[in-house]
C-alpha cells in the first residue's frame, strides 16, 4: 500500500491510523519504506504511526549531528501536538530515539531500538566512502542483511547515489563521527523509559553483544532476538518483528 507523504513547512512525514502515537525513526542509509511492515500492521492495532523524514542532508554541516536530530524530533512532536509517544528507531534512528528519551523523558512512554548505534563505534560502517565503486557499495549493502537478497538494486542504487554526492557524503561522515562521539554508555543507567530491544542474531554492523550491553545498561529493558537476521529486523523479518513488538506493547500496557 502506498501512502502520501505530507509536507507541512519544514516537515515531511507519513501519518497512518489513529490512536497512540508511534513515531518511527529511520537510519542513516535507510528510508521510510524500510518500515513498511510496521506501517501496515500497527495502524490496525490502535496506533497512529508517524514516519518523519529526518533532515539528514538538509541541515547546516555544524548541526548535522545526533543531538540536533533529537531536538528536531522534539520540535516535530510539539508541532504535531503529541504527548506520551512511542519511539521506534533502527540504527542511527535508534540512537536519536535514545538521546531524545534522555533529553525529554516526559514525552516518551516507550522506546523500541533495533540495530541501534549509541554504544558501538563501528555502527556507522567502516568504509562507505569509497566513491564510484558500485560493486563495493553493493557488497556493503548486502552485508547489512543476513540474506543478501534483501539488498535490492533499488537499495544499492540509493546508497551508491548518496556516497557519490559530495555534499551528502560529507554529511554522512559528519553524522558518523557525531554518533561515535556521542556514546551513551554513561547515560543509559539513568534512563527509566520502558525499552524494547529487538536484535538480529546475525547483525554484523552492531553485533549481538551490543544488544546485550544495551540490555544490561538500560534499567527497564527487554531483549528479543530474531534468528537468521542482520542489522534491519523490521525489513528482513517484518512479521516476526511485529509479533514481538505487539506482544511487548501489550504486556507493557503501551
TrEMBL record:
<protein>
    <submittedName>
        <fullName>Alpha/beta hydrolase</fullName>
    </submittedName>
</protein>
<dbReference type="InterPro" id="IPR029058">
    <property type="entry name" value="AB_hydrolase_fold"/>
</dbReference>
<dbReference type="GO" id="GO:0016787">
    <property type="term" value="F:hydrolase activity"/>
</dbReference>
<dbReference type="InterPro" id="IPR000073">
    <property type="entry name" value="AB_hydrolase_1"/>
</dbReference>
<dbReference type="GO" id="GO:0016020">
    <property type="term" value="C:membrane"/>
</dbReference>
<keyword id="KW-0378">Hydrolase</keyword>
<dbReference type="InterPro" id="IPR050266">
    <property type="entry name" value="AB_hydrolase_sf"/>
</dbReference>
<feature type="domain" description="AB hydrolase-1">
    <location>
        <begin position="175"/>
        <end position="238"/>
    </location>
</feature>
<feature type="domain" description="AB hydrolase-1">
    <location>
        <begin position="21"/>
        <end position="116"/>
    </location>
</feature>
<dbReference type="Pfam" id="PF00561">
    <property type="entry name" value="Abhydrolase_1"/>
</dbReference>
Amino acid at each position: 500500500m502506498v501512502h502520501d507523504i505530507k509536507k507541512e513547512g519544514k516537515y515531511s512525514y507519513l501519518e497512518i491510523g489513529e490512536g497512540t502515537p508511534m513515531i518511527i525513526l529511520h537510519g542513516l542509509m535507510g528510508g521510510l519504506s524500510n518500515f513498511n511492515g510496521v506501517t501496515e500492521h500497527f495502524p490496525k492495532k490502535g496506533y497512529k504511526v508517524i514516519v518523519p523524514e529526518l533532515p539528514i542532508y538538509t541541515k547546516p554541516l555544524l548541526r548535522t549531528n545526533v543531538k540536533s536530530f533529537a531536538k528536531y524530533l522534539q520540535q516535530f512532536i510539539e508541532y504535531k501536538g503529541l504527548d506520551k509517544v512511542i519511539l521506534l528507531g533502527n540504527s542511527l534512528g535508534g540512537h536519536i530515539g535514545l538521546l531524545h528519551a534522555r533529553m525529554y523523558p516526559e514525552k516518551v512512554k516507550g522506546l523500541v531500538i533495533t540495530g541501534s548505534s549509541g554504544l558501538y563505534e563501528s555502527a556507522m560502517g567502516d568504509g562507505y566512502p569509497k566513491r564510484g565503486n558500485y560493486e563495493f557499495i553493493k557488497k556493503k549493502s548486502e552485508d547489512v542483511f543476513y540474506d543478501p537478497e534483501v539488498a535490492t538494486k533499488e537499495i544499492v542504487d540509493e546508497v551508491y547515489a548518496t556516497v557519490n554526492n559530495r555534499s551528502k557524503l560529507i554529511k554522512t561522515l559528519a553524522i558518523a563521527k557525531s554518533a561515535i562521539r556521542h556514546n551513551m554508555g554513561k547515560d543509559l543507567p539513568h534512563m527509566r523509559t520502558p525499552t524494547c530491544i529487538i536484535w538480529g542474531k546475525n547483525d554484523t554492523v552492531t553485533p549481538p553483544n551490543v544488544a546485550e550491553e544495551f540490555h544490561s545498561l538500560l534499567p527497564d529493558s527487554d531483549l528479543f532476538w530474531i534468528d537468521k537476521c542482520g542489522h534491519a529486523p523490521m525489513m528482513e523479518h517484518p512479521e516476526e518483528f511485529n509479533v514481538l513488538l505487539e506482544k511487548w506493547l501489550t504486556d507493557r500496557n503501551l
